[in-house]
Design brief:
Elements: H1 2-18, E1 50-52, E2 59-60, E3 76-83, H2 86-89, H3 100-117, E4 126-133, H4 135-139, E5 144-151, E6 182-183, E7 186-187, E8 193-195, E9 198-199, E10 207-214, H5 224-242, H6 250-253, E11 255-260, H7 263-268, E12 272-278, H8 292-295
Parallel strand pairs: 2-4
Antiparallel strand pairs: 1-3, 3-5, 4-5, 6-9, 6-10, 7-8, 10-12, 11-12
């Protein structure tokens, strides 16, 4: 009886089909011809304008990616995310630090970082680095690079990273404690510069930040003749800052401190050299910006 009932049910279904019972509107009875193809998986690309609680790392792993709100304590901030060009796309692994590809990425980060903070980032206690995807992410198609910025406690004495609770967006657009200003340079027993802690410009000091020289693509200085070029170019920066003639007497008006980043940063593409006027043993209690020849007189002894 159960088999007969089932047969009747099937027969009834066939009868309905034969009597012309139509399909619902929009249904053509073909199961697969309207399916959209499954899209290719896309690799994760980190966003910009987010902060991270940890220190900068050259390789960014998705497993450790845990951004925090920039009002929470953090040590780095992503100010820009770029993409490597087609020439890099076929590489089997991420570009190595110091490679031409990283130098190109650094140049983009350099420009974008200054735009982000509202002024030349080297005029503040700031540092930038280029982070690349992990080898696994690269194999999965990731071709981005991340421009991360860190506040330093002191750029002159190789200071450490500072913890922040605010974004660096437009941090240098207005006068800020981040800006480099005046310094009390201290010499060692041999007369060489030992330390140069920051000092308020209305307090006794003997050095002042004057600006940045963008060096050409030359080797990192290791010998006196290399440094001579750096000092000569920084003296020009100082002369314009103080408003004194850029003549042969400039060397008798002020000493100079030329501070590029370290050799590793230089290899990565950082060609910015911070330039400071230096009065050696003579102290002043005001800024020498625009001070002219009265502010930087020729020192005959």
């Amino acid at each position: 009886m159960r088999r007969w009932t089932a047969a009747v049910a099937v027969g009834g279904a066939l009868a309905l089909g034969l009597t012309g019972c139509g399909l619902p509107a929009g249904v053509d009875g073909k199961l697969t011809n309207s399916w959209q193809p499954i899209p290719e998986p896309t690799p994760f690309v980190p966003p910009a304008e987010v902060c991270h609680s940890g220190d900068f790392a050259e390789t960014a792993y998705l497993s450790s990616y845990s951004p925090v709100d920039c009002t929470a304590p953090h040590r780095t901030e992503t100010v820009h995310v770029g993409a490597f060009g087609a020439a890099v796309a076929e590489a089997a692994e991420p570009p190595a630090q110091g490679s031409a590809e990283i130098r190109g990425a650094y140049a983009e980060c350099d420009t974008k970082a200054s735009e982000y903070v509202g002024g030349d980032w080297r005029s503040g206690r700031l540092w930038i680095g280029v982070a690349v995807p992990s080898p696994a992410a690269w194999e999965g198609g990731a071709r981005w690079f991340r421009c991360d910025m860190t506040e330093l406690t002191n750029v002159e004495d190789n200071g450490g990273t500072a913890s922040r609770t605010a974004s660096l967006r437009d941090a240098l657009a207005e006068p800020s404690p981040l800006h480099l200003t005046c310094y009390a340079v201290r010499n060692d027993s041999n007369g060489a510069i030992d330390t140069m802690p920051a000092e308020q410009c209305d307090k006794p000091h003997n050095a002042e930040f004057a600006g940045v020289w963008q060096a050409p693509d030359i080797p990192f200085p290791t010998q006196d003749r290399d440094w001579a070029q750096f000092h000569a170019e920084c003296r020009k920066i100082i002369g314009r800052y103080a408003g004194v003639p850029l003549d042969d007497n400039l060397q008798f008006r002020t000493g100079v401190i030329s501070l590029p980043g370290g050799a590793t940063e230089w290899a990565a593409g950082n060609r910015g050299v911070r330039c400071y006027l230096w009065l050696n043993e003579r102290n002043v209690s005001r800024s020498l910006k625009g001070a002219g020849t009265d502010g930087l007189p020729i020192q005959y002894e």
